[in-house]
Amino acid sequence: MLRKAAFHDYPGYVPTGAHTDANNTHASRWTHLGHCVDILLQNIQCNANTEVITLAWVEGRTQPWPDFSVNRKCRDFEAIYKWQLENSVDAGKFDRMPIPHDAYVWPAPWENRESELGEKLGKHQKQEGVLGQAGHQHTKRHE
């Protein structure tokens, strides 16, 4: 969703799914994008790279140049993706999933709350997209 939001006006791109859903309010879209960015930030911070980047002298430079040709051992993305496909909830079943009679129903994340799903909101959450709040908002342009 983050890529689609960032490049929504890319030539030839036609938004689908959450971008065309009439029930996807502006506030919920901002909340969703905020989560996307927060998950990426957490991943970067929690898995910080501590590899040493060596420097080498190269022709035409008076300072050493970083050698980015580091060999890394990556996770098998295809295996992870295959596991996710085999173990995810069927989208049709998800859409028809009934709310259990004894379920606690949390307040909507895009409402002006101090917490989300029981967790205090971090400093990154500024109530983006919620009009009238002290966060990000758009104003109409007069023609």
From TrEMBL:
InterPro entries: UstYa-like. Residues 115-127 have a biased composition (Basic and acidic residues). It comes from Aspergillus oryzae (Yellow koji mold). Residues 115-143 are annotated as: Disordered. It holds the Pfam family UstYa. PANTHER family: TAT PATHWAY SIGNAL SEQUENCE (PTHR33365:SF14), YALI0B05434P (PTHR33365). GO terms for biological process: mycotoxin biosynthetic process. This is Unnamed protein product. Belongs to the ustYa family.
